Amino acid sequence: MSRKLIGWSVAAIAAMALIITYLPSFVADSVYKNVDDLTDGEMPATVTAFQSGPDVVSILGGSGEGLNCSLPAWANILFDGSSDSKGRRHLVLQRFRQACVFHDVCYRHGLATYGYNQNDCDRILQNAAFRLCLYIRNDDKGSRADRCQTDSKMVLAGVSFGGYNAFRDWGRSSYFEFDSDPSRSNGFLVSRVVDHPFKTVVPAKYGSEADQVILTFENVRSNVAVTCITCTDKGAIGFTRNPGEVSAELRSLGVLWLPEVLLERDPKLSETAPVWLPPRRRHAAPHLLVDAQGKNHLIWMSRNNPQNTITCIVLADAARLLTNTLPKLDLCSTVDAKSSLTMVEIDMFATSPLPMEIPGALDPIYATAISPQVTRDNDLSFCSRSASRQVDRLERADDQSKCTTFSDERVKKGAALGAFQDFAVVRPGQQLIFARDVAQRTDSALTSIRQRVFGDAYSPRGALLVIDVKPPLAATDAVRAELKKIVRFDIDDRFDPMMPITRKVDDLRFLSLEASQSSMHLRMIDFARDNPAVGTVRLTMGGADVDLDRSWAERPMLVLETRDARPKTKLVFSRGKLANEKGEPSSATTDALTLQALVFERDVAAPPDAPFVKSAGATCEIVYDFAPNRTEWECYRPFDPARSMRSSPAARMRASQMLVGRFSPSGRHAIAFPDFCLKSEPLILEPEGDAFAPPLKPAGWPDGERLQRTVKCDPLDAAAIVSRPIAQKAQ
To answer: Is the CB of residue 664 less than 8 Å from the CB of residue 209?
Structure first.
């Protein structure tokens, strides 16, 4: 080979290396020159689990497709691969995984849940990636912000240019709550199943009603209203001009003298009422916490602004929300605001705090958070503060959470930043956090090259952190948090999210959904074992094993644990298909879909290898009929696949939240799907043997501005149907 040819070859290789090194960052910096320049120093918000009903243990979203950065392994070449001050290399697919987890869930569920479009998800990703980079680097190099900003722009460019097909529109998105601070949402609906607020208080009046009710919260730019969509038209206050004439319902809440706002009024429990939360804050959905006495608490964790972690904690219950929440002043303090709700404002030192019951504590409900923001080295800390004890201005720092920093070397100096990458599991006196490894040690230049070129596209290794929490020794002391156990595992993040099968403390069995090309499989991992491994959970119908079609994973699965004398674990699946999903609508005044539900169950005490047996199922044909020439409103037009970002009544129902609870007069678990277009008339499937029965009458209004929903249901009991895509179409 001539020297000239060798010279040209070397030059070509050098030019290619320069292009690979500098061109992507140059393009990203040019295209996204004016992105947000964040200086607040926060960690990004984490994906957050929300309980929708008292019997719900967990909700498995994500469509069974795993949670990761969805980039090829060689993508590491395009990003900064230098080591930090402690010699650790943070490859992009692991470094930004927390941001990617949020982005994956946002793409699959963001539109149906919060109204997020693709741009919303992408911008959240870019901001989260930048925040993560600053924390993970954890050094004093002056240029780290510039490098982090460039890398975050490159991640944004990659998903913007290559991820447009992955974003799910109204034909594919499904409802699944995950955002603890949906600040980019213009408005969203969320429902909670709670125990009937007055059935045990005034049994003569409410004794014939269902044990539980459904509350729907409508949040429009943080203005919140509540409607009990399964309550009757009975009133809990009673019309009176005498402020001393207080109903039994209000007396049960400690009300002995009617405020002026309740005089000469008799609002019905089914009416929509404002929820007077402190203004100038971003209110997310309420958390549902069922305490040791069985009382249902609805708890808001409301952020003030993105520049700090000050949080307004609001404790409420259904009875207060459905009667009166009007305060005297708009302050986040029960005493200062003179509110019927319990409110306290504290700095949590974290972006996504969670409510937790600590048995034995004087004030048993606490706001808690895992935070690296407490120490300079980003050591893992557990922060908490009573969610009900009012701030004592004479007590130093009583308006701040108090933190316990764990001394274990495995979670110090930023080593456990991966703990922020998945859904936290909260139990009475215990929290479970998954930490995926985000750093690799670089021993040589050859290792560095191999890691960047052949790095794993997934994140296989990590740990489950088991944190036990005990009451403080004194009311103003920090709770006693202990890192009880660290369970190392080697399980691919294609099985994320992993969620618990039971609410029992110290039971470390978790479930996961895995969707293959044509089917969906239920997996179980027992983290109490020395080497946790993925096992298969059997589902049976008619005495034989059955494989469900992958379409059953597109909508979240609910895991329930009943509170009967012989408790059962129930798995509730659902799936839907629009009638005109791929073609032209058959009519300009109708919209239709097929919606199916399937329930499997087994005894809670059953052996781990025992199968779940199909106990009920239904396939329902739902048809909306509406007045013509109103297509500017989404409830008066059929779904158009060519314009799939425009919703329709059937598309909204196909994507709707699924609720399970005892809101049926039969006392058994019914299934409900809140209806966006008929908000006061949810679709409720009543249990009927091993099937479900739809409402007897059409919903809506047939005359004038016509909008009517009719439903017809049949049993779903053939394995051949559930193991294939939905074939039938609603007419």
So the answer is: no
